[in-house]
From TrEMBL:
Signal peptide feature range: none
UniProt domain Ig-like: residue ranges: 260-349
Biological classification of the source: Archaea, Candidatus Huberarchaeota, Candidatus Huberarchaeia, Candidatus Huberarchaeales, Candidatus Huberarchaeaceae
Organism: Huberarchaeum crystalense
Superkingdom of source: Archaea
Name listed for the protein in its UniProt record: Ig-like domain-containing protein
Pfam families reported for this sequence: DUF11
InterPro entries, sorted: Ig-like_dom, OmcB-like_DUF11
Length: 801
């Protein structure tokens, strides 16, 4: 055995191998009796004499020659093989053959005979990489007991050590607060298998593993692989039929079979790309067959090519139902009718299958048979990471992540496994390019690490951070005191890639004798201007200290926290008042700065402050006021003249306090009135009657006042102004008065009693004759004595003369 090789076992028939195979020059005779007649035997059939013998490894002799193993098989332990053995035979039935014997010692070979021994050897890690020479020899004696000469032989076996390459891929750029997708691809670039794999990723400082781990391979699709067709296929006629049988589409590989017993086959090689498999669960192989004639029962069998033995091994067989001519029928090998799953577990990378159909129709006419699809279906459990170990240091923050694959996972040649996971970028990550290393360890199949070569992988990721620039302008840039200046502060994210800033605070430090007055506007530019709300605070103004003013908590109705992406800015405009204590002839510098957080809530480090100066040097700008109104500076003289004056002042419009104001005067003489009447009204007089009360009970009253010259200039006569009014009155007021009593008058004649009644009266009347009250007469009676008859001496008239 070569150095580092170990004998394992001699293979036997139970493992589908021919452990010791004999090929004899004698023939095997099938006969009813193996009794020779005159040295001949009549045989019903004759076949080549080939048979197998099973070897018991208890008889295998193993010794050491230096660093190599010597393995011997002493065939005397096999004994003999019995049968009816013949040599030359006639060509026609019945066959007449020369009898040779009924027993053959298995440790003897006749001229022209062959013996083949098959065994398995184990390659240890001590085997030399590259070509290993395996020598074989034999020894024996001839019929006379003399040692025979045997030609030694050798076979070269190439030993490969595992070679793998680690590749690291992740997104090219990131920023604090961002999750970055990372892929580590471990590819077996050699010709040997590697196991017990640990993949380690040394993350740059301030990058943190965030799981989201998935595992995949180069072309693996999902947990069920198939049904898929072969990557190449040929039929039994030697034709390439790959494109005809890798899809079920009626594009068939076919041939015409005339006689019963004729057969047609296809074989195909599959490339499963299943390399990260720890357990294959179920397997099926399907053969979709076709017949151009209605038929039942054509025999179909499916075989697997055993790469170790180099022979086709039947997996399953049966009949296909082609009762409907011109259609396809599926014949399937699965766990119910075969050991197909165990076969694939031993050969799951590029298995090779053959499907054969045999014409069992008892007709001699030609029948078209064919194949539409040869497919493989596998359900498997993909490899998993058994454990993830994180080694972490805190100053600076750095992690090494080790992914330990399952112990029974094998990474075979040309296979890859890809780990995908997420990494979080912290604020402390270095700006610019960060180099990342990924490596792996593993063992060869002999559990040795020294033979395994793994090339580490590197990948760079660029960290971008927000680049905050503060710019400032002022209008006007030269100003006198007692004036306003307008400042504009713009905070812009100048980052060249996606790196944002949030929670922006703007601070401004005003020069001495400058006082914050008000904020004109605050906007956020994101393709268009957005008006912002804000909070602010400031220190109190003092002529001896600089005033600080701060804007923060920028929001609006739809934005709770303004995030500045690259190219975006916040702009604040405000006014400041320049007090007279601001020194003239100096540049008064104003400072502005900003603070904020990155998306990991780390303090921004790339912040450029700004300052701007205002010139308070003052150039007098002499300007005249308008003329005042004329005003008297003398009184009017007896000539009726007086002197008036007006003025205007030349002053410094810039208030530089360098030139005093100058007042200019102008006089003029104007006409006046030495004595100017000052017409004044007296008070109104009392009302007085100017008519008597009339019969309508009304009368007219009057009052007056006199306009007179209060200055007694004697230039204007007095004027009396009258004002009348009609008022109600009592035209006649009754004055009730009694008249005197009248004389007593007889109201009766003297009666016989010499009495009579007398009466007198008096009348109450209106002495003023107002005709408003009727007169009232009051009567009074009395009884007086009389002369019932009193002579009434009366003269007659004079008679005529």
């Amino acid at each position: 055995m070569p150095k580092g090789w170990k004998f394992n076992k001699t293979l036997n028939e139970s493992e589908s191998y021919e452990s010791i195979k004999y090929e004899r020059v004698w023939k095997n005779c099938t006969t009813l009796s193996c009794s020779p007649s005159l040295g001949n035997v009549i045989c019903t059939s004759v076949s080549d004499l080939k048979y197998n013998k099973t070897w018991d490894d208890a008889n295998t002799e193993i010794s050491s020659q230096g660093d190599r193993q010597l393995v011997k098989w002493n065939l005397t332990h096999l004994g003999s093989t019995t049968g009816c053995f013949v040599t030359s035979c006639t060509e026609l039935y019945p066959y007449t053959c020369t009898f040779a014997g009924t027993s053959i010692p298995d440790n003897r070979l006749l001229p022209g005979e062959n013996i083949t021994l098959i065994f398995k050897a184990y390659t240890t890690s001590n085997a030399g990489e590259g070509v290993n020479i395996n020598n074989a020899s034999a020894e024996g004696v001839n019929e006379s007991g003399s040692i025979i000469s045997v030609t030694d032989t050798s076979a070269n076996v190439t030993v490969y050590y595992p070679y793998t390459q680690t590749k690291k891929i992740w997104e090219q750029t990131t920023e604090p607060g961002n999750l970055t997708n990372v892929s580590i691809n471990l590819t077996n670039t050699g010709n040997a298998t590697i196991k017990t794999i640990n993949i380690t990723d040394s993350l740059p400082a301030c990058f943190e593993y965030k799981n989201n781990l998935t595992i995949e391979g180069i072309v693996i699709e999902n947990k069920t692989w198939g049904y898929k067709g072969p990557v190449n296929a040929t039929d039994s006629d030697g034709n390439d039929v790959t494109d005809k049988v890798n899809v079920s589409d009626d594009n068939r590989a076919n041939t015409t079979l005339s006689a019963p017993g004729g057969s047609y086959a296809i074989n195909g090689t599959f490339n499963t790309s299943i390399y990260n498999v720890t357990g294959i669960n179920n397997v099926s192989v399907v053969c979709e067959v076709y017949s151009g004639l209605i038929t039942t029962g054509p025999v179909v069998n499916i075989s697997w090519f055993n790469k170790t033995s180099g022979q086709w091994q039947e997996v399953c067989s049966g009949t296909a139902n082609l009762a409907i001519g011109g259609n396809d029928a599926n014949f399937t090998c699965n766990d119910s009718n075969s050991n197909i799953t165990d076969i694939i577990r031993s050969d799951f990378t590029t298995p090779k299958f053959k499907c054969n159909i045999t014409n069992s129709t008892p007709l001699t006419v030609g029948i078209v048979f064919g194949f539409d699809f040869l497919g493989l279906w596998i359900n498997y459990t993909p490899a998993t990471v058994n454990n993830v170990t994180i080694q972490q240091s805190d100053t600076p923050f750095q992690q090494n992540i080790t992914f330990s694959l399952e112990d029974d996972f094998l990474l075979k040649p040309n296979q890859s496994i890809i780990l995908n996971f997420s990494v979080y970028t912290k604020s402390c990550a270095a700006e610019g390019q960060n180099e990342n290393f990924a490596n792996a360890t593993g063992l060869d199949l002999d559990n040795n690490q020294t033979t395994v070569t793994i090339i580490p992988g590197t990948a760079n990721i660029t960290v971008y951070k927000a680049d905050i620039n503060v710019s400032k302008t002022v209008e006007p840039n030269a100003t006198p005191t007692q004036n306003f200046v307008n400042y504009t502060i713009r905070v812009t994210n100048l980052a060249t890639s996606n790196a944002s800033a949030r929670n922006i605070t703007i601070n401004d430090t005003l020069p001495l004798c400058f006082e914050y007055y008000d904020t004109i506007s605050a906007i956020y530019y994101n393709e268009s201007d957005v008006i912002l709300n804000y909070s602010n605070e400031s220190t109190s103004y003092s002529s001896s200290t600089q005033q600080n003013f701060t804007w923060f908590n920028f929001t609006n109705t739809s934005i709770s926290d303004v995030v500045l992406a690259p190219g975006q800015y916040i702009e604040v405009k405000f006014r400041a008042y320049v007090h007279t204590c601001a020194n003239e002839g100096y540049e008064h510098t104003n400072f502005a700065n900003a603070t904020g957080l990155d998306m990991d809530n780390g303090t921004l480090t790339n912040v450029t402050d700004a300052n701007i100066s205002v010139n308070v040097s003052c150039t007098p700008n002499m300007t005249n006021t308008s003329w005042s109104e004329w005003y008297n500076i003398t009184t009017c003289n007896s000539s009726d003249q007086l002197i008036q004056q007006r003025n205007r002042t030349e002053y410094d419009q810039n208030n530089c306090n360098e030139i005093s104001n100058t007042t200019y005067y102008e006089n003029r003489t104007v006409e006046c009135d030495f004595c100017t009447p000052n017409m004044t009204n007296t008070s109104w007089s009392e009302w007085y009657n100017i008519t008597a009360c009339n019969s309508s009970d009304q009368l007219i009253q009057q009052r007056n006042r006199t306009e007179y010259d209060q200055n007694n200039c004697n230039e204007t006569a007095n004027t009396t102004y009258y004002e009348n009014q009609t008022v109600f009155c009592d035209f006649c007021t009754p004055n009730m008065t009694n008249t005197s009593w009248t004389n007593w008058q007889n109201i009766t004649t003297c009666n016989s009693s010499d009495q009579l009644i007398q009466q007198r009266n008096r009348t109450e009347y209106d002495h003023n004759n107002c005709n408003e009250t009727a007169n009232t007469t009051y009567y009074e009676n009395r009884t007086v004595f009389c002369d019932y008859c009193t002579p009434n001496m009366t003269n007659t008239s004079w008679s005529e003369w």
